[in-house]
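REQUEST ID: PR-0412
SUBMITTED BY: lab tech R.K.
PRIORITY: routine
TASK: structure prediction, single protein chain
INPUT:
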Amino acid sequence: MAIKKGFFICFEGVEGSGKSTQAKLLYKFIKKNISKNVILTREPGGTLFSEKIRDLMLDNKTKVNPLTEFFLLMAARNEHIVNKINFYLKKNFIIVCDRFFYSTLAYQHYLEGMDKKFIFNIQKKIFNKVHPNITFLIDLNKKESKSRIKKRSKRTNRFDRLSNYHFNKIRNGFLKISKIYKNKIILINGSKSMYEIKNEINNKTLKLLNAKR
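STATUS: complete
OUTPUT:
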């Protein structure tokens, strides 16, 4: 399938929702069945500099002021957009990204209480008209999230250890965001099996890309 213009797909969700797994699965599906011109990236991260910021933020021993954390995120995102996302969009690639702007709203606004207008004003300086074409938001409750995180073989980070109260603030924030941006977000039931979710996302992606041909 020839893609005449770059296409930007994002995944969002609470910790343990399976969004990272689904982002990887979609990337493999696109590369095998749709186009070799596809990349998988993530936030915070995606570039050498941004990955260093990610390591700082996910460190279990690190506790920073919410405003400091926000500016670290914005620095990582700016590098990511300028040095990676813009580059590949101009080359008409399909980009699959694990987390992006809606996570900033969920965590910095709905969890930390940061002013939404302030967040948007900073974002305007960074985005330069770069916005996801579609976002898959995978919703999951705390009980299932906790169960999945426990099954992970890798070490957990500080966001994996959120209390029920903080987890629910983030989850409810994402659900509010999905209603505000309903034309840009596809809400996915994260309690389904990995294969059911994968097939649902693959089918929806095919339809979206066919419409853009």
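NOTES: The chain is about 55% helix and 15% strand.
REVIEWED BY: pending
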